[in-house]
Design a protein that fits this description.
The complex is a heterodimer. Chain A is 43% helix and 15% strand. Chain A is α+β, with helices and mostly antiparallel strands. The N and C termini of chain A lie far apart (67 Å). Classes of the chains: A alpha+beta, B mainly alpha.
Chain lengths: 337, 542
């Protein structure tokens, strides 16, 4: 009696399953939650499937919702791997306990120490620098030097910035706090706000357009946004300037990945992550978005290389996460919207 | 007699449990949010009070005030013109004015900035002609945000007011004129008050959308409650604080709805459905002015953004137009249709339950369960997601253990859960028109039917439903288009592989790739428009 009851229950569950995302635990399969956009990761997924036969299912969303979802799902999560942009987000994922540490010689060899979590919960896979872009007809490169210098009187009414709500700016300010202390940084951020030529913009592209149109003379962007602008308008009067070359080096950030705490296909996930750090994958990963490969043996794309070599800040990128809340509060106090 | 009496009793119980069941599902995510107060985030709150709270409150206040005025003036004015008057182009402007409804607020915001910004084509041209300088008031300002949101949300008011005016006909207005009122007096003293429930329902929807909007205010970088909620969540990674802010927002909305309901008081509205009436003919200057005004709105709120999208599509070519793109369209359509039908059926049941005798507390429960619409999509989506994963982690885990199987997720990431999420989010959208069309049914009709011996069932099927058809259709359509545009819940809860047009728009816009976002956005507008046009043409024939 009980047995037949169980059987019918199983049948009911099977029917429900038809409407749901239930997994048959196929061995060669991976489930990825990614905050890096589909068109930037799908080519890699497809290539890996072609090479190994591992089928990859994925969901795209922003980092916040994905991390929240992993927390809510807990032990039952179908996800094996979290891919996201910004070290701050990766650090938060680890802080919320949704990632697990990975022991892998391959990853340790391929990814430099300052681009990964010191406890191996996540690994940077591509690098982007956040630095100045200026109008060549109105600014001499000699006038530019450091992020701090943008608070100087000479930039009064000449600076444009993206909103402080974007994690990239939070990460930049977090690094500055680490390097110079809270007080000094707050003074600098207040100086930036005083120098603004227009209310802050909601994205890097708009800020660059404002510089091009003459609303302001200089702004701070991620390098790949500048790359996209170049592709669109090859004759643009805007140029990149590498910040802090005589001091700590230009602020860099990563996009990266970590294996989830309750991954059902841990071994497969680790293998895939290792593959992502190898030259073949690194090339695709970086070039698809005009970024720098995290693996230092791999050369960036031609256009990216043409912006010149630069000294990058060697501070561990996890600082971005550790000091994120502090950075947001500081920017709020300074009136940086 | 006693038999009838007990049958009535079971009826009561049926409606009671039905409303309770719906309310329980709808309130699940909201309860989740309220529970967040159990862990007060002193740190974040203190910081907010010290820095931004004053600004947030005043920004939100001005936005609500401005959009209220904007959508009411546009919506009611245009509805009056197209429903009651005859002027050049009236026939097609009638439905063309609904078109902006299919343009998502975030698209409108972006196009608006792209065109009118300092670096945009207009100001650039002005600088070419007249030398350097700033020729515009700042677009990224309170006024700019109010303009954009009013242009996007006025169709809610327009649609509901228009059907109210049409079903009112001219009789009352003419009677008022005969009694010596001027046209304006007649309009303000007779016509407008009669259409008030519909206008209020439309305004409530527009304001809820305004309060919940994130896409447009984020594009303008205009700080509101919504942006603060996101900051608490994405910046501080403090979901508790985000939820607390969200409940506060909900409180404001609840208060507004409560004030409106009380102001409406015990008024009962009846109307004579006269569909055959002569419109007021506007000729000469008046006709041209009416045409011009309506055309201008269509031009700015629809033609302009769509043209920009088309330009972008041409610029990028059809790179993304492939087999997969068609599947996005299919997903969007099927989700929209299923969600629209489900939500309207539930809204109908609730509306009818409200009409049952002796149900004094029902409207209150229903009001609360439609509040979810005013929450930023993401916040509600997270509340819903947590509800489902809680069910997964408790009930289903226990279930699988009992069956001797490996526990796994059943609800979260299922189509079923996504449809329920849409239902929770858009119940208010379906309920507004359905309910206001029910307001049109005179109590005397029900009484007459009852006295003729019709039971509740017959009254529902033979009296209520036919009279409510336009409202039901309107509700279904609004939900359909809203589901197409919906982003956060779709992103968070869609099953693997179920990408939609809105998901693709998000993928591109969140990285600032506006030109590539144009194809899915344009498709979204077109797909959303078809039913709008169909419905408008149909309602003219009714």
């Amino acid at each position: 009696m009980l047995k037949s009851l169980k059987h019918s229950c199983l049948a009911v569950t099977a029917v429900i399953s038809a409407f749901t995302s239930i997994y048959t635990a196929a061995e060669e399969k991976l489930v990825v939650y990614t905050a890096r956009k589909e068109h930037l990761v799908k080519p890699l997924f497809d290539l890996y499937t072609k090479q190994t036969g591992v089928q990859i299912d994925y969901i795209t969303d922003s980092a916040g919702p994905l991390i929240t979802r992993l927390q809510a799902e807990g032990k039952n999560t179908p996800a094996d791997l979290l891919i996201t942009v910004d070290a701050g987000n990766l650090w938060q994922a680890q802080d919320k306990g949704v990632l697990q540490p990975i022991k892998s010689e391959t990853l340790e060899k391929n990814i430099p120490v300052h681009l990964r979590d010191s406890n191996s919960h996540w690994f940077g896979l591509s690098v982007r620098a956040r630095t100045m872009v200026y109008a060549t007809d109105r600014v001499k490169p000699g006038d530019l030097s450091t992020y701090a210098n943008l608070a100087d009187k000479q930039w009064d009414g000449r600076l444009c910035l993206r909103t402080s709500k974007k994690v990239y700016n939070q990460s930049l300010v977090a690094t500055m706090i680490e390097r110079m202390g809270t007080e000094k940084t707050e003074e600098i951020v207040k100086g930036w706000v005083n120098n603004l030529a227009a209310p802050v913009f909601s994205n890097d592209t708009m800020a660059m357009e404002a510089v091009a149109a003459g609303q302001c003379d200089v702004t701070v962007v991620n390098t790949y946004y500048y790359g996209r602008l170049l592709k669109e308008k090859p004759d643009t009067k805007l140029k990149l300037f590498w910040a802090n070359q005589k001091t700590t080096g230009t602020h860099v950030n990563v996009s990266g990945a970590g294996v989830t705490k309750y991954a059902k296909h841990k071994a497969t996930a680790v293998k895939f992550l290792e593959w992502l750090s190898t030259p073949t994958a690194q090339k695709i990963f970086a070039d698809s978005n005009m970024e720098y490969p995290a693996n230092s043996t791999v050369k960036p794309a031609k256009l990216v290389a043409s912006w010149g070599e630069f000294k990058a800040d060697q501070l561990n990128v996890e600082i971005a996460g550790r000091k994120q809340a502090e950075a947001i509060k500081l920017m709020d106090r300074a009136g940086y919207k | 007699m006693s038999v009838g009496y007990t049958r009535e009793m079971t009826h009561h119980r049926f409606w009671f449990w039905l409303v309770c069941a719906v309310a329980a599902i709808v309130l699940l995510p909201i309860t989740n949010l309220i529970f967040s107060w159990g862990n007060f985030q002193t740190d974040v709150w203190l910081h907010l009070i010290e820095t931004q709270l004053g600004q947030l409150l005043s920004n939100t206040f001005w936005l609500v005030l401005g959009v209220s005025i904007g959508v009411t003036v546009l919506g009611v004015g245009l509805a009056w013109l197209t429903a009651m008057c005859e002027f050049p182009g009236q026939k097609w402007l009638d439905w063309a004015l609904m078109l902006p409804f299919a343009v998502p607020a975030y698209v409108m915001a972006f196009v608006f900035l792209g065109i009118f910004e300092f670096s945009g084509p207009i100001q650039t041209q002005l600088r070419v002609w007249f030398g350097p300088g700033n020729y515009f008031p700042a677009i990224r300002s309170t006024g700019g945000v109010i303009t954009v949101l009013s242009l996007v949300f006025y169709p809610y008011v327009y649609m509901l007011a228009r059907s109210a005016f049409i079903s009112q006909g001219r009789g009352l207005m003419d009677a008022a004129r005969i009694l010596g009122l001027s046209p304006w007096q007649a309009f303000f003293k007779v016509t407008l008050p009669m259409a008030r429930p519909a206008i209020a329902a439309g305004l409530a929807l527009a304001l809820m959308e305004t309060l919940a909007d994130f896409g447009a205010v984020a594009t303008f970088n205009y700080d509101t409650f919504t942006t603060a909620i996101y900051k608490a969540w994405y910046g501080f990674f403090n979901l508790q604080a985000a939820a607390q802010l969200a409940t506060l927002l909900l409180l404001f909305v609840g208060l507004a709805v409560f004030i409106e309901k009380n102001a409406r008081g015990k008024a009962r509205y009846n109307q004579n459905s006269q569909h055959l009436f002569h419109r007021y003919e506007l000729t000469g200057v008046l006709g041209i002015a009416a045409s011009g005004f309506a055309c201008l709105v269509v031009l700015i709120a629809f033609v302009m953004p769509v043209t920009q999208l088309i330009i972008w599509v041409i610029k990028t070519g059809l790179v993304d137009f492939d087999q997969r793109f068609l599947s996005l369209v299919g997903h969007s359509l099927s989700l929209g249709a299923v969600a629209a039908i489900t939500t309207v059926v539930i809204a109908l049941l609730l509306a009818i339950a409200q009409k049952q005798p002796n149900q004094r507390w029902l409207p209150k429960v229903i009001n609360i369960s439609t509040l979810g619409y005013a929450l930023p999509g993401s916040v509600l989506a997270v509340g819903i997601m947590m509800g489902f994963s809680w069910l997964d982690n408790t009930i289903f885990t226990w279930w699988f253990n009992w069956l001797g199987e490996e526990p796994r997720q059943v609800l979260l990431g299922s189509l079923f859960a996504l449809i329920v999420a849409y239902g929770i989010r858009f119940l208010a959208v379906a309920f507004g028109p359905v309910d206001s069309s029910l307001h049109n049914i005179k109590p005397s009709i029900t009484e007459a039917a009852r006295s003729l011996g019709a039971n509740s069932q017959r009254i529902i099927f033979q009296v209520y439903l036919p009279m409510m058809a336009p409202g039901v259709l309107t509700g279904a359509l609004l939900v359909f288009v809203d589901v197409l545009k919906e982003m956060p819940a779709t992103l968070l809860m869609r099953p693997f592989g179920w990408d939609t047009l809105a998901v693709r728009v998000y993928e591109m816009t969140s990285e600032g790739e506006w030109a590539r976002a144009a194809l899915p956005a344009l498709t979204l507008v077109i797909v959303g428009l078809l039913p709008v046009i169909l419905l408008m043409r149909r309602s003219n024939k009714l």
